[in-house]
Amino acid sequence: MLSWLDPLLLPAHHLIDLTAQWLPMPLVIVLLTILVRLALHPLNRATHRASLHRQRIAPQLQQVRAWHGKDPERLQRELLDLHRREGVSPAAGCLPALVQLPVIMIIYRLFSAPQIGGQTNALLHHTLLGVPMTAHLATAGAGLPVFLGLVGLSLVVAYLTMRQTRAHLVTPTPATDSPQAEVARTMNRIMPMMSFGSVFAVAVLPLGTGLYLVTSALWTLGERYAVRRLVTV
Fold first, then answer.
1. What angle do CA 205, 208, 212 make, to 5 degrees?
2. CA 182, CA 188: separation in Å to the nearest integer?
3. Interatomic CA distance for residues 115 and 130, integer angstroms
4. Which residues lie across from 58 on neighbouring strands?
5. pTM of structure
6. Per the database record, which ranges form the Membrane insertase YidC/Oxa/ALB C-terminal domain (predicted)?
7. Where do the domains of the chain lie?
8. What's the number of CA atoms in the CB half-sphere (13 Å) around residue 155?
9. Is 111 exposed, middle or buried (0-12, 13-18, 19+ CB in 10 A)?
10. pLDDT tens string 109-150
């Protein structure tokens, strides 16, 4: 299904295979994750700045919703005008997540496809504590403790990420009872829980992909903590 990625994957496959001759494959995956996240760091800094701007204009947004909540078309125009005047993009913050999706697809393909571009996938024989990088939780067998440890770590990271997300949400005031404000409150209840999606992914995807996801989630947790203390508007 993802074979269309193979022309792009072959150079990455050869580089990872070459590096794995000198370093254990789990360490190679961790280093690869760090390189990807370092490349995305400027986007994440920009996302944090956009979040600070949204917090700054939150009272104005609530006022606009209070004034025009009964007129959806007028409300949409006023909200767009406010974002434009303040130089804040309503969609800011989506780009880092969108960029990571093809990366996850690439990692999944690297640790699941028997062949890449017509060549034997040389990465499939590598292991983590004796468990193949291609293994799944349902077929782990004696390697079940390794998967359970990875899933457990993913659960801890997801819980900490949920708490971190809740602590920095911008919520409408109780006096704001427009439909849009109610939608915002609903999203604020849902968004923190989305961090647990990575736990499900770790449980169902190959071990190599799960290791990438856990490392990436750990990086995100630490990066948000650091960026919120070092980056200002």
1. 90
2. 10
3. 22
4. none
5. 0.78
6. 27-228
7. 3-230
8. 7
9. buried
10. 888 888 887 778 888 888 888 888 888 888 778 888 999 999
- DSSP per-residue letters across 44-106: HHHHHHHHHHHHHHHHHHHHHHHHHTT-HHHHHHHHHHHHHHHT--TTTTSHHHHHHHHHHHH
Dihedral sign for Cα 64, 67, 70, 73, please: negative
Q: What is the pLDDT of residue 218?
A: 93
pLDDT tens sequence across 143-185: 889 999 999 999 999 999 888 877 766 555 554 555 555 656 6
Give the separation between CA 26 and CA 32, rounded to whole angstroms. 10
Tokens of 191: 């968004």
pLDDT tens column, 56-65: 666 676 776 7
Structure tokens at 125: 């024989």
Could you give the CA distance from residue 223 to residue 160 in angstroms, rounded to a whole number? Answer: 13
| Strand ranges inside the chain, DSSP E | 115-116, 119-120, 127-128, 131-132
Q: Give the pLDDT band (50/70/90) at residue 70.
A: low
